[in-house]
Amino acid sequence: MNGKERVLKTLKHETVDRAPWVPFAGVHAGALIGKNATEVLLDADALYDSLMAVKRLYQPDGMPVVFDLQVEAEILGCELLWDDVAPPSVATHPLENTTDMLCDCKQPEADKGRLPLILDVMRRTKASIGDDTALYGLICGPFTLASHLRGNNLFMDIILDEAYVSQLMAFTTMTALKMVDLYVEAGMDIIGVVDPLVSQISPDHFELMCHESFKTIFDYIRVKGRASSFFVCGNATRQIDVMCKTNPDSISVDENVDMKAAKVITDQYNIAIGGNIPLTTLMLHGTQLENMKYVVNLLDTVSNHNLIISPGCDMPYNTPTENTIAVAQAARETDSVRSMVESYEAPKEAIHVELPDYANLSKPLVEVFTLDSATCAACTYMLGAMNVAGDHYGSQIDLVEYKYTEKVNIARCKKMGVTNLPCVYINGRLIWSSIIPSRDELFGVIDKLLK
User: By CB atoms within 10 Å of each CB, which of 4, 123, 210, 261 scores lowest?
Assistant: First the structure.
């Protein structure tokens, strides 16, 4: 059984010899060949060469060709902010100040934006390794794409203008279907619908405004003869059940979700699940043996049926190669690795963190804890909501972001008891966790503190 067969059988809920290994290398693939994130996302040869390096070094059963949720947004009129160690982020939102521009947004075509480059690399990668490696074509989910177009105003629309949100979701769903067509034609085996912001709304709002869109997309992927995956970031624990009801072949979650508890739900729907390997504390900052032990423990904790071994999301650019190789080895050679790590204890690193004197602050302190607002869409919009408050209140409040990619901030999170990202603390108290507040809700909290 080769890697491609292993992945596809898992997504068909059949018995396999071991859980497949699928690294979400993203722009990290560029680091393997000495190319930065911008270079690897704008140069077809660099992207192709980086994918061949992923194949050679990590021996995956499946892999995405590109992990960039801004491809569609760029075509639809969003300006992007580029970065050397992360995919670009959305800098402008064409529908931010109007609800009348949908007719001006053009749907993706094969010759638009960066699609010629991506489709070319998909076809070349398919020809090179597509016989034994399952290839994922990742598209931006309709709710996150709606956020890219509308900005943080979307979270107010959910409360005040359901009809407009429905109209916008219908539009972004059509975008997703067009991307499915393009990626299927380019030879992708699995279409992954990546929608980080799903974790930032309630299950009720998901069922009301998102269910039909996602079910339409997954049904369409199935009609096209391909398998599907529903990617979500952040603490999506409360959304797992409603996600399953949209009928994807698999779901992928990050470290905010307890894999054992989530798999109980996905198994009830006979849906495969993957992800959960921590990106920063483990893959970026951990040791080889820590990474091995995590994977072995995961495989020993949950049923290997309907399971895919993968990182929680897009791997950080600077992830040490040896850590990813360690994960791959643990996935492929679990029994021998288990004996290797059974008595291993991770070294404890003492980092001193001094917390503010919350009881004696001169003005409200808004602390935003993120994985990294430059790379995590949910974090981007959580920080964006707080920046709205920063612009409105100016010097009346203090506002700071703590990125979990930095060791000192990992220590800060532990000391404060932060359990899920993104989240917002005000004056040392948790106010929002994995829920992006509307402008009125946010201002209401701060106004009370200023009285």
Answer: 261
